[in-house]
Design a protein that fits this description.
Low-confidence stretches: none
Number of domains: 2
Largest sheet: 10 strands, mixed
Mean pLDDT: 92
Helix content: 25-40%
Radius of gyration: 19 Å
CATH superfamily of the largest domain: Spore Coat Polysaccharide Biosynthesis Protein SpsA, Chain A
Number of strands: 10
Shape: globular
Length: 292
């Protein structure tokens, strides 16, 4: 293994998707990442033996098997705390790079740049769509792809990591908001492309009711917990309602999620990390004007 990868681990949270994960592991080996330490968090899969069996043969692998489902956000925290590396390449169980080009130069932290996350170009295989226009150069980004980004782990954990109660849904932009308000940055690196190989077998489907509930709830919390409440609550509520309006299905889970988002904005008062009005205004402006 290249000495340049000594401070790197590959971190993948998963649940009930052993078949999808197996395809990803083959692609990682083909990309030249087979010797990089691989850490997997199995979020209480129905078959606890499936994921360990899938990773047999990977040279340096550790599977952490959760006894209680905690969700993708906390699963990522568990991996960062456990891996013992300075940098973590976060991937989803259905995402992978086909080349490591553009990775090594970011494996040295420059405290003056304060780059907490480097996020990469993301291409969805079924639709052939890119997350960012292919002619966009490297530069600052407002958010990152959770399934295709390089984390400076001490920086992320120093801010508390992901909010565990988010489970999943807007956990990436919520963390992006906290990073920005604390003077850290996200950098977009287009030279490395992460491929999103989304597919589902009958045993690996998404719980769509839960999905829409969490997105409706968390879209409120990401603003109400990080901004002055008088600004953050209406800002998040507008996002939640707008999202529900444009995606007109699963109405009851969305209504319940919106109501819970309002209530939990007060119930989770001790979890709030509100920035100033000026910081919130800068974040909103940056989010609207940044091209990535």
């Amino acid at each position: 293994m290249s000495q340049d990868f000594n401070n790197l681990a590959i971190l993948i949270p998963t649940r009930n998707r052993a078949g999808i994960l197996a395809t990803t592991l083959k692609e990682l080996q083909n990309a030249g990442l087979g010797e990089v330490p691989l850490w997997i968090y199995d979020d209480c899969s129905a078959d606890p033996a499936a994921i360990p069996k899938t990773v047999e043969g990977w040279p340096r692998v550790r599977v952490i098997s959760g006894k209680k489902r905690v969700g993708q956000a906390e699963g990522r925290n568990v991996l960062m705390r456990a891996c013992g590396k300075e940098f973590g390449l976060f991937l989803d169980d259905d995402s992978f790079p086909r080349s490591v080009a553009g990775l090594q130069k970011h494996l040295v932290y420059n405290p003056e740049l304060r780059r907490a996350v480097v996020t990469f170009q993301y291409m969805d295989i079924p639709t052939q769509r890119y997350s960012t226009p292919v002619d966009q150069p490297a530069g600052p980004a407002r958010a990152f792809q959770g399934g295709g980004s390089l984390f400076h782990i001490p920086t992320i954990l120093g801010l508390g990591g992901f909010r565990s109660f988010f489970i999943y849904g807007y956990e990436e932009p919520e963390l992006s908001c906290r990073l920005q308000m604390n003077g850290f940055h996200i950098w977009y690196e287009p030279s490395l492309v992460v491929f999103h190989n989304h597919f589902e077998t009958p045993a690996e489907f998404r719980n769509h009711a839960e999905y829409h509930y969490l997105y409706a709830r968390n879209s409120i919390l990401m603003s109400s917990l990080n901004m002055p409440l008088w600004l953050g609550l209406p800002h998040g509520l507008a996002r939640s309602v707008r999202r529900s309006f444009y995606q007109r299905n699963y109405c009851w889970p969305k209504c319940r999620g919106t109501a819970d988002g309002i209530w939990q904005s007060f119930f989770l008062w001790r979890e709030r990390t509100p920035g100033t009005y000026a910081q919130a205004k800068d974040w909103i402006r940056f989010s609207k004007t940044c091209s990535r």
